[in-house]
Specification:
Elements (H helix, E strand, L loop, with lengths): L3 H14 L2 H5 L4 E5 L1 H4 L6 E7 L5 H13 L8 E5 H4 L1 E11 L2 E10 L7 H10 L2 H16 L7 H10 L5 H5 L2 H9 L1
Parallel strand pairs: 2-5
Antiparallel strand pairs: 1-2, 3-4, 4-5
Length: about 180
């Protein structure tokens, strides 16, 4: 397994180099969520959620993407509109080269607290034991190696481990995973 503290430092350095917090905090409550906070990094992926207090979601998205495209090191951003089903918009940045490899960045913009990862990241971080963290890393590595560590499967893994799952076999027979497979 890779050194989690080193990967977390690297992710924070990528964020700092690209001035992400500086840009995003002007628009709302900006927090790092997911694997970087949890120090359960397998895929080089930075997740930042921004809770917007006001303004039109698309207008704010356009302002942020304009600022991001003016940052040295960012050549392309992707916008995915989830306003109809999840009350948010995702901004993706795919090429952030660092010593460990190419980091991707997902920025979730929303005005709906319930669609942020703020609370769930804190809850998982305080609940996972050292042993459970090792199991999470093994499961995430298994799915990463198969090209399947995407579309929210990490969140399912975290919850399953907290509910007592301790192997790939147990995870794949869980009702949450079976439902996930039906919808993806």
């Amino acid at each position: 397994m890779r050194d989690q503290k080193k990967l977390k430092r690297e992710a924070l350095e990528v964020m700092e180099k690209l001035h992400l917090v500086e840009i995003l905090e002007k628009y709302g409550d900006t927090r790092l969520v997911g694997s970087i906070v949890l120090e359960l990094i397998v895929k080089l992926d930075i997740d930042i959620h921004v809770l917007l207090p006001q303004g039109d979601l698309m207008d704010v998205t356009n302002k942020i993407t304009t600022e991001l495209l003016n940052v040295e090191g960012i050549r392309e951003v992707r916008i995915t509109d989830y306003r109809k089903d999840s009350n948010g918009i995702k901004i993706g940045i795919d090429e952030c080269l660092a010593p460990s490899g190419n980091w991707t960045i997902d920025i979730w913009l929303t005005k709906d607290w319930t669609t942020t990862g703020f609370e769930v990241t804190e809850r998982i971080n305080s609940a996972l034991t050292t042993e459970q963290r090792e199991i999470v890393l093994k499961l995430k590595q298994y799915y990463f190696d198969k090209g399947l560590l995407r579309d929210g499967i990490s969140s399912l893994i975290y919850v399953a481990i907290l509910n007592g799952v301790s192997s790939v076999e147990e995870f794949e027979t869980s009702s949450d995973f079976i439902e996930y497979q039906r919808s993806h």
